Amino acid sequence: MKLRLLFAAIVMITTLHAASGISTIALPGASPLVTIRVVFLTGSASDPADKLGAASLTAAMVARGGTRTMTYQQILDAMFPMAVSVGAQVDKQMVVFSATTHVDNLEAFYKIFRDMLLDPGWRQNDFERLRDDAVNYLRVSLRGNNDEELGKEVLYNEIYAGHPYGHNNAGTVAALKSMTVEDLKRFYFTRFTQKNLVLGVAGGYPRNFLVRMQADFAKLPNTAPPALELPAPERNEAPRMVMVEKDTRAVAYSLGFPIDVKRGHPDYPALLVAQSYLGQHRMSGGRLYERMRQVRGLNYGDYAYIEYFPRGMFQFEPDPNLARSQQIFQIWIRPVDPATAHFALRLALYEFDKLVREGMDQESFERTRNFVMKYAKLLTKTKSAELGYAIDSRFYRIPEYVSYLEAGLQKLTREDVNRAIRKHLGGGNFTIAAVAKNCASLKDRILQEAPSPMTYNSPKPTELLEEDKAVSAWKIGLKPENVRIIDVEKVFE
Amino acid sequence: MVNGAPPPRAAKAFPFDYDLHDFPNGLRLVTIPTEYPNVVALYIVVQAGSRNEVEPGKSGFAHLFEHMMFRGTKQFPPARYEDVLKQAGAASNAYTSDDLTVYHTTFSKDDFDTIVMMEADRFQNLDYTEAAFRTETLAVLGEYNKNSASPPVKLNEVLRDTAFDKHTYKHTTMGFLKDIEDMPNQYAYSRLFYQRFYRPEYTVIVVAGDITKERSRATVEKYWGKWQRGDYRPVIPTEPPPAGGPRANHVNWPTRTMPWINIAYRAPAYTDTEIDSAALDLLAYIAFSETSDLYQKLVIKEQKVDAFGAGNPDHVDPYLFRIEARLKNPAEMDAVRDEILATVNAFRENKVAAEKLEAVKRHLRYRFALSLNSSEAVAAVAARYCSLRRTPETINRLYDLYARVTPDDIRNAARKYLVDQGRTIVTLTSGGAK
Which residues of B touch A128 (CB under 8 A)? Predict the structure, then answer.
């Protein structure tokens, strides 16, 4: 017991500002594992207009390319016995380089890591390999093999068209093909500077490690990066739909619209409760999951989001360090059979409308609030996640995430949540992204508001069949001028 | 024991002071106290997976059954079950593989009794209607649909079907599409599956986190102690030794994608006592990992391949040693295949350098230590190994075995298993092109 108290006492966030002014977050602890997160507050929203993908490719050159003194192969060979690798994640406003090493190897690892970040090699053959990877990611991994993520990314591009968020983080194929090493160096030297750097370290690192890291990273340019202008995205005046034509078995949907709420907004805890009630990610307790999958067997699952959550089909918890100044509300409908695709879309909209009109009842509110409060603690179960959340809290200018959320949830009432639902979700005209075969046929049925009766392989209660009649007649309200079909081969080009 | 893992070279690979307890009905409980505060991870391992699907037409049933376990009991119908999980703020899910089905829940230690009680209820009193069963089969078809856009998934399906004749590893955990489409008609069989395998002698409960062995034992005894032992023993068909020379197959993918090649060899079952399997584990890293000569040539220098790797995944029965590559250009398929085969041949001929072998051993120890970074991770790892040997001790025996592998062992294992007779090659390209 004593040991645990001691452990708890030293696990506290310390924020240090070295003489250099580099923002640092430290979570010292007794673990033999040491986690490092180096975050630059820049990202794909800062890609030059003719160099879309520059942030991602620059980060790739740092994390998966050589340094001035070591080739990439030499780095791999050196890190292999330590079982360490450097991860890079690029989003609109954050680039993070992260790694976890055993403390035995910290010294050897850090020397390489430091050189990777501060003295990249900029070799042409690394560049060609990584540019190929980026093009293949867009064309094959996303467009070819993962209809669900494709739908989500197309949705974001559509909602943010003409906005700095309006392209995939990896860029476009055309821009990647026109990119040069010089373009990436320019991005690196102007954007990866001390002024937008946050250093994060957690675990059982030695005493002097932080100071040493701060001194090393003070070698980065101390210039202010160009300011990022983020106009407020426009809300749809009527529903819109973008359909991706692809030879595929099922129909994958994602739909959403921009919201003003992000962490730190007074309604964030309320909207988080609403989102959890409607569709907690990859859990069976959400309303959409229950009505669409559990009761009707329409697909594998249906969820709701108020923050960007990429790669959701591969993981249960969101990755930290995807902080954004602007977020959307989103519904994810996992692939449905083409025969029930029209009905499934209607049902999701019907349930969403019901939530906006009726709100949550007292029992659901209390249960969901309780869930969100406890579940938040599980999100920071590893040191790496805890550190990531601490960095995000810095971005959003809020206290430590779990205590911030607890404070907000404790004073929350059912009325607060229902008011927040009406205010932020009410009247929201969705942009709908669909990946499907024979898009034209689905489009016609939707435009004509044709009936979409359901049939089942087992008897259903009368109330459900009655509800189906209402759903089957639900008006989506799409106008021909607000629907377009694009060929999958043209997406992200 | 302080939080996390000790220096990898100093002590046991699985460094936790765990408690192993057998109940009279055959149920085994593994309790692993950790220093991560407040949280408990409960992993319930059923030693039945798609390997146990012995009847024709029943592929995919272990996985379907995993879905059915969320369809409720009289005491806890699905909505009430979900309410309790929500009250606990629990993260809950399940997965099925060839040899196991795992139900896992992570939650605050205060809710331990409630969750253990509710889990005991569904393992002993599951009760679902035929209508609920038929609806759930559609969710499984939905899962097949969402996976079907992925070439590696299809490649895996065809590779198994080609490499195996008799053993149930011939089919994937998802099952054959025709069997999935027939699932709505198999309600009676689903009850039989439950009767057979959801029994204490097939089950290991793993509890990791902020918990004592006393509390864990007492709580599990209270709710699981009266569970009745079963008597079913499946006869899993034995795969005959490879005969008739190497095998090959090809997949035409309907849309544009990058070509894949999969080269597999019939490999031994998981063991923590025999050196061959451990030697093949290490060989996979030396020959095909990111520091291998072949990776350097194909991925870094020539840049013909963008995804590359190999492994000898742990299985209860003999399975496959697999090498996979994704190519940038279909015209280079034969050249890449020949490079891989030449590398395999070289490992049959030559002994590996001692320092390369040492680097791999260090890599594995550190990789394993780094993976134990939360109570949930500790429970997940222990659960996987408990499906193979019903104890986490097998991890320590396995890593001790790795430490003893010599260059001779690796060459011997290559000569014995990486042979043309036991080889299957499956390629995948966009429609038309080979």
Answer: 303
Say whether A139 and B256 touch across the interface (CB within 8 A): yes
- What local confidence, expressed as pLDDT, does residue A20 receive? 56
pLDDT of the residue at B146: 84
How much is the pLDDT for A131?
98
pLDDT per residue as tens digits for the range B273-291:
999 999 999 999 999 999 9
Within-domain flag for B118: yes
- Whether residue B105 is found in the same domain as residue B198: yes
> What sign does the CA torsion over A306, A311, A315, A320 have?
negative
Q: Is residue A18 predicted with pLDDT exceeding 60?
A: no
Q: In angstroms, what separates the C-alpha of B238 from chain A's closest C-alpha?
A: 34
- Tens digits of residue pLDDT in A438-466: 999 999 999 999 999 999 999 999 999 99
CA gap A201, A208 in Å, rounded? 12
| CATH for A2-217, options being 3.30.70.100, 3.30.70.3450, 1.10.357.10, 3.30.830.10 | 3.30.830.10
Over residues B169-175, the mean pLDDT reads: 96
Contact between chains at A284 and B70 (C-beta distance less than 8 A): yes
- Cβ distance of B35 and A296 shorter than 8 Å: no
Residues B200 and B274 in one domain: no
Residue range(s) defining the domain that contains residue B30 = 19-224
* Residue-level pLDDT at B432: 55
Best CA proximity match to B190, nearest among B51, B65, B49, B55:
B65
Report the CATH fold assignment for A240-488: Cytochrome Bc1 Complex; Chain A, domain 1 (3.30.830)
Same domain for B255 and B217: no
B189 closest CA partner among B169, B175, B205:
B175
Taking 60 as the threshold, does the pLDDT of residue B4 lie above it?
no
Q: Are A244 and A433 in contact (CB under 8 A)?
A: yes
For residue A370, give the chain B residue with the closest CA: B87
Token pair 């060609």: residue: A128
CATH number at residue B252: 3.30.830.10
User: Are residues B133 and B186 located together in one domain of the fold?
Assistant: yes
**How many whole angstroms separate alpha carbon A150 and alpha carbon A138?**
9
Q: Give residue B331's pLDDT band: very low, low, confident or very high (50, 70, 90).
A: very high
Distance from CA of A21 to the nearest CA of B (A): 32
A2-217 and A240-488 in the same fold: yes
CA B304 remoteness from chain centre: 30
CA distances to A9, A26, A28, B170 from A207, in Å: 17, 11, 9, 55
B277 in the same domain as B160: no
Q: Let me know if residue B233 belongs to a domain.
A: no
Residue of B nearest to A457 (CA): B134
Touching B: A residues 234-253, CB under 8 Å: 246-250, 252
Mutation for A interface: B35, B143, B146, most A CBs within 10 A: B146
Distance CA B365, CA B361 (A): 6
Would an 8 Å CB–CB cutoff place A105 in contact with chain B?
yes
Burial class (CB in 10 A: 0-12, 13-18, 19+), B297: middle
For chain A, the structural domain boundaries read 2-217, 240-488
Contacts of A145 in chain B (CB under 8 A): 149-152, 257
Residue B124 has pLDDT above 90, yes or no: yes
Distances (CA, A) of A132 to A96, A170, B65: 22, 11, 42
Residue A8 scores a pLDDT above 50 = no
pTM of the model: 0.93
Chain A nearest-CA distance from B341, in A, is 23
Residue pLDDT, tens place only, B25-66: 999 999 999 988 899 999 999 999 999 999 999 999 999 999
Q: Is residue B230 in a domain?
A: no
Domain count of chain B? 2
Residue B8 lies in a domain: no
* Prediction ipTM score: 0.90
CB contact under 8 A, B6 and A32: yes
The CA distance from B72 to the nearest CA of chain A, in Å, is 12
